[in-house]
Specification:
Lyase, Ornithine Decarboxylase, Chain A, domain 1; TIM Barrel; six-stranded antiparallel beta barrel; 25% strand; alpha/beta
Amino acid sequence: MEIGPYHSYLEVDFGKMKENWHKVRAAAGKREIIPVMKADGYGIGLAALADFAVHHMGAKVLAVAQTCEGLALRDAGFSSPDIMLLGPAPEHAVPYAVENRLMLPVFCRENALAVERAAAAQGVKAMVQIKIDTGMNRVGVRPGAPLEEFLALLKVLPHVEAAGVFTHFVNATYTGDPQTPAAYAAFVRAVEQVRSAGFAPRYIHCCNTGATSWFREDAISTHVRPGSLYMGYDSMDDGTNWLGVEEGISWRAFVTNVHRLPAGESCGYCNHYTAQTDRIIATVDVGYADGLFRPMGQGSGYLLIREKPAPYLATSMDQTMVDVTDIPGAAIGDTATIFGHTLGGTLLPLARLQTFTGQNLSYPMCLLTKRVKRIYRY
C-alpha cells in the first residue's frame, strides 16, 4: 500500500460496497437506485464513487447537492448519466447547471423563472424536478392549491421540462414516527396532482437512506435515493441494520511519539488535560484540520491502537494525544484507527462515534479534508 507523503489515509473497500449495493437493490424491489454522492462522495471522493456507481453498478442517474458537484462530475468525464441536484441553486449558478445538463429542483415562481431565463438564453430545454414539501419546511411546494398554482406556471415555460417529482422525509430514521406515513400520503397526492395536470415525470422518489432500508409502503416511486446506506451505514436511530450492510471504509493514521506524562502535568493547549496519575500518552499525526471532530478529540471517545481503545486526551489542528497506558507495547509507528476496521480486523463503527459526537453517521466522513489520502480497494 503506497501512502506517499500523506500522514493518514482513508481505505475504501468497494468490494464490500458492491455487496451492500445488491442488498439495497433487493430492498428497492422494482424501484431503481439513485446513489447520492454529495459532499465529495461523503468524503470518499466524488469521481471515484461515481466511477463505482456508474461503471461497476450500472447507475443511470446520480444525485448531488450543489452545482459545483455536478460540474465536477461532468469535468471528470461523466457525460451520459443524468445528474440531479437535490438542493436549489442560487440564481448566479443556474446558467452553469443548465449548460451542463444538471436537473435542478424547482418549487417556487422565482427559481422556476431563473431556470427558464437561463435555458432561453442558451437555446436549450432544461430538465427540472418539482420538489414537494411534506413537512421538512426547508424548500418545496405544498400539495393542493400552492402546487396547482405552480404547475400552471410550469406549463407556460417553454424552456423547462418537468422530468421528476420528489420529496424528503423529516424523520425516516425512526420507524415509529407517524410523520413518515403522513408525509408519504401527502407525496402521493402531490404526484397525482402533477399527473392530472398533464405532466409525466419519469423520476419519482421519496425514500432517502433511512426510508430505503425499512419503508415498504412506497408503491408510487420509480426510484429510491440512498446515500450512506450503500456505503455500509444504516442511519436508523435505534442502531437497527435492516439490510445487514457492512462498513467498508476505514480512516487510519500513525503514532509519532510515545512518552510518560507524570501525575500533575498536562498536555494540550491551555493545559486541556491534566494527569491525576502517571500516564503513558501517544501522539497521533492527525488533528481537526484533517477532519477529526474536535470536541471528540478533546476528551470524549477513543481510537484504536493495537486493537485496543486509546482514549482521546487533547487535539489540535495537526496532532492528537491519546492515552495508551493500558496498551502494552504501544510504540512509534503503530497504526491508529479513527473509525472503521483496524489492520487486524477489529471494527470501530461510526455508530460508536455517534455516541461521542452527538452527530449523525455521515458527519465524521464529511469532515475529512484533502490531507487524508484516499485508497480504493476493489
